[in-house]
Amino acid sequence: MATTQDPLAASNSGSVKERLNDAATQIKQTASDYGRTAVDQIDRNVRGAGSVLHTTAEKLRSQASSTEGGKVSDIAQTAAGKLDATASALQGFDTRQALAQFENWSRQNPGIAIGGALAIGFFLGMTLRSDSDSKVASSYSGKYDY
What we know:
Elements (H helix, E strand, L loop, with lengths): L9 H57 L4 H21 L3 H14 L1 H30 L7
């Protein structure tokens, strides 16, 4: 007669615990890798947006200087300056630092952080729900409405 062993029995508990610990470690490592990849991608995109804004400001300045002075040229120069300032801010943005600051703020203000997360979740859910409701309503023809 074949006997089966309980996987949680004392003789096997070390190996089960080790496997669970290994799986948990692997999950943590995978999540950490995804997080690092996401942060790096955000940094690249933000810096790219800053570069695009800087290029746009240069083009705006060159177009404004090619026209005669006046109100439009002054507005274009002002807009180019604001674009440059925004580009500099974006190029100096550090996602890791922003996340660390947000984490510290959340620890100091847990009630506000939880309330804000609930509000964002509520509005996001309402937005998604209204979007799906509008798709259902637009597909309804009312042909057989009795």
